[in-house]
């Protein structure tokens, strides 16, 4: 993938890092188990909290990172609802 489309590979790696985020991976199940949130609300709200923090910065690199978090949230919610995706980048039109 790197050889054929470095931009997509870069986005894929950014998305993978977000999915592997320890804090998010602990926070979502915690909200479901301890606060009895539904799974989709936990996904939406935990990612929204991160997005709000990232969007409050003037740094363009961090703003781009916010778009990655939004993409991952959208993908996770589609998966939660059982919707099919066209590929790993179906969140963003590239």
From TrEMBL:
Q: Which Pfam families match?
A: PEP-utilisers_N
SUPFAM superfamilies noted in UniProt: Enzyme I of the PEP:sugar phosphotransferase system HPr-binding (sub)domain
GO biological process: any one?
A: phosphoenolpyruvate-dependent sugar phosphotransferase system
The domain of life for this entry's organism is Bacteria
Keyword Transferase applies: yes
Family under the similarity heading: Belongs to the PEP-utilizing enzyme family.
- Keywords in alphabetical order: Transferase
Spell out the protein name for this chain: Phosphotransferase system enzyme I N-terminal domain-containing protein
Phosphotransferase system enzyme I N-terminal domain ranges (all copies): 7-65
Q: Which organism is it from?
A: uncultured bacterium contig00015
Q: Taxonomy-wise, where does this protein's organism fall, top ranks first?
A: Bacteria, environmental samples
